[in-house]
Design goal:
- The protein has one domain: Rossmann fold (3-Layer(aba) Sandwich).
- The longest helix has 16 residues.
- By secondary structure, it is of the alpha/beta class.
- It has 8 helices and 5 strands.
- It binds shikimate-3-phosphate.
Length: 170
């Protein structure tokens, strides 16, 4: 069984994914970490040196690799993964367990204010520009996110609550 978690930057995909995998007793893979380890470069460095198009190609290749690997896995995607390279079709072909962690903009904003530096798409924005950017970006991306088989309202909830919700839907 492959379980995929998706959602905007800062929605808690990795945190929830790790706990979910531990509870189910299966391995966890964070797509961004996997790309960084495989290429020997951080995501900001990859964006800077090779550009976003190169990153999106690698993202697609490593996503396919994970989805086609043997065994059970919880997989946390990057925020943009569902929106490029026909990745959502690939994911939905491989598994019916696809969870969108939907978090309200003010909560995303609060989390991303402290998490901006490692994220090339937002690191150069001024703090006061962030909410409007998130709002517009999320509006574009929601069309892809909403293709998930389940939407979890993840605002204001503890990690263990989200894990339980997901487990009941498996
Ligand atoms: C991105 C989100 C990041 C990372 C890259 C691009 C995006 O992952 O994949 O910086 O396009 O939203 P997180 O969602 O884990 O921050």
């Amino acid at each position: 069984m492959k379980i995929v978690l998706l959602g905007y930057m800062g929605s808690g995909k990795s945190t929830v994914g790790k706990k979910l995998a531990a509870q189910l007793g299966i391995p966890f893979t964070d797509l961004d970490d996997y790309i960084e380890e495989s290429l020997g470069n951080s995501i900001p460095e990859i964006f800077l040196n090779k550009g976003e198009i190169f990153f999106r190609k690698q993202e697609h290749l490593y996503l396919r690799k994970i989805l086609e690997s043997e065994g059970d896995k919880v997989i946390a995607l990057g925020g943009g993964t569902p929106c490029y390279s026909n990745n959502m079709n690939l994911i939905l072909e491989k598994t019916p367990h696809v969870f969108y962690l939907s978090v309200p903009i003010p909560e995303l904003n609060a989390r991303l204010l402290t998490g901006k530096a490692d994220r090339p798409l937002i690191r150069d924005l001024k703090d006061e520009e962030l909410p409007e950017f998130i709002g517009k970006h999320l509006f574009e991306r929601r069309n892809y996110y909403s293709l998930a088989t389940h939407t979890i309202q993840a605002g204001g909830k503890e990690v263990h609550e989200l894990v339980s919700e997901i487990v009941t839907l498996l």
